Amino acid sequence: MVTAHKRGLGGERGQTSIVGAITSESRQVRTGRWTKAEREWAALFARAPHASPYLASAWVSSYVDTFAGVLPCEQLLVRNQYNELIASCLLTKRVDRRALLPLRRAYLNTAGERDADSVVVEHNGVLCCAVSAAPVYEQLALHIEQSSVDEFQLSGGTEEAVTLMLGALPHWRGDIEWRESPCVDLAALRGAGGDHLAVISRNTREQLRRSLRKYGEIGGLIVDAAASLSEAHAMFDEMVLLHEARWQSLGQRGGFASPVRRDFHRLFIERAFPVGQVQLLRVRAGDRVLGVLYNLVANGHVCFYQSGLRFDDSNHLKPGLVAHHLAIQHCLRAGYDLYDFLPSSPGEGRYKNSLANTARRLGTVLLQRPGWRRQWFGMARAARWQWTACKKN
Fold first, then answer.
1. Which tens digits make up the pLDDT trace of 309-320?
2. 8 Å CB contact between 61 and 271
3. N or C: which end of the chain has fewer CB within 10 A?
């Protein structure tokens, strides 16, 4: 291995590592200096036909402009022997105080912000167009090992990303949390005739048909897709109002209580809508709005991000089931391949599973650097857990 230093963005010094024919370079990311890197990222994304919507340029650039001013952030670029960019990722860093010592953690891509402002990332991994991703993850691991971080977190990682990351850092201790992401395989459904009702359980089918019939008595069921940027913003605002009203009625904060999070999504829609990386759908019965769905879109993959639903019509009606069923039919006709509900918090995902016909696993892994600091932080975590258990008892 040969290491050298190379000038990065804005005059910042980064480190270049060379292993065989693959090289990687890191450079600091700053708000206002992301334009060139954004073009590179967008071009790389266009060459990665299976990359998730969470790796699209609109999502990543919106994150940089929202959070890079408060979180240290760098970009890793991996090139092949022809100096062609074949992979890239962001590394955000946060320092917390634990057991009298600073705990330094790095996060892959768009993660690491305060929990209250978190935009949440799923289907995460290195943006890569190489034939084999393993050498790319080895470069990422080498960069992490050469850095000063104590922990590395991959949030919402694909099975491939989690597996490759664990293999690339075999001496780092890892804790993994796996979650199911229910999906509707639209390509398979289309090949089988396109009847979504035929692939769900009898109980769900009966509930759905009853609700469809009742809503149909109010007026014709219609799905309005935002056709302009102004419509997309209007539907987003409508969705936020419905969403927040529902959670406030339950005495809880909704998913858009944070002004920082709302501003991020408005910025994302501004950039994503013109390039087809976001979808906003309003579902209504006549003039009566059932709900608004907010989805991320890329490479035939539709990821349901959030919804605002109206629950004041009747306890017997199922606005969520109806809205998603009609959205699935809409995406089926539009030619998409996958309608992904994404993982839910415990107790919130029953309706997602009832409408899905397949699932994918996503994992969040926290890797800890070997050494005395890991032992120290481990003892502190154990002591904190015991203290919490004693207080509960």
1. 998 766 678 999
2. yes
3. C
pLDDT in the model for residue 9: 30
The two tokens of residue 329 are 């039919």
The C-alpha atoms of residue 361 and residue 132 are separated, in whole angstroms, by 21
SS3 27: strand
Distance CA 151, CA 102 (A): 11
Which residue in the block uniquely carries the two structure tokens 């006709």? Answer: 333
Residue 272: is it exposed, middle or buried by C-beta count within 10 angstroms (0-12/13-18/19+)?
A: buried
Q: How confident is the model at residue 250 (pLDDT cuts 50, 70, 90)?
A: confident
Alpha-carbon span 107 to 135, nearest angstrom = 20
Q: Distance between CA atoms of 271 and 278, rounded to whole angstroms?
A: 9
The answer to whether residue 177 is domain-embedded is no
Question: What is the pLDDT of the chain when averaged over all its residues?
Answer: 89
Give the tokens for residue 48.
Answer: 């990665």
Which residue's entry shows tokens 């290195």? Answer: 126
- The gap between the terminal CA atoms of the chain, to the nearest Å, is 54
What is the DSSP annotation of 286-349?
A: TTEEEEEEEEEEETTEEEEEEEEE---S-TT--HHHHHHHHHHHHHHHHT-SEEE-----TTS-
Q: Which domain holds residue 165?
A: 2-172+369-392
Q: Which single residue is written with the structure tokens 């340029």?
A: 57
Size (the chain), residues: 393
C-beta atoms surrounding 33 within 10 Å: 16
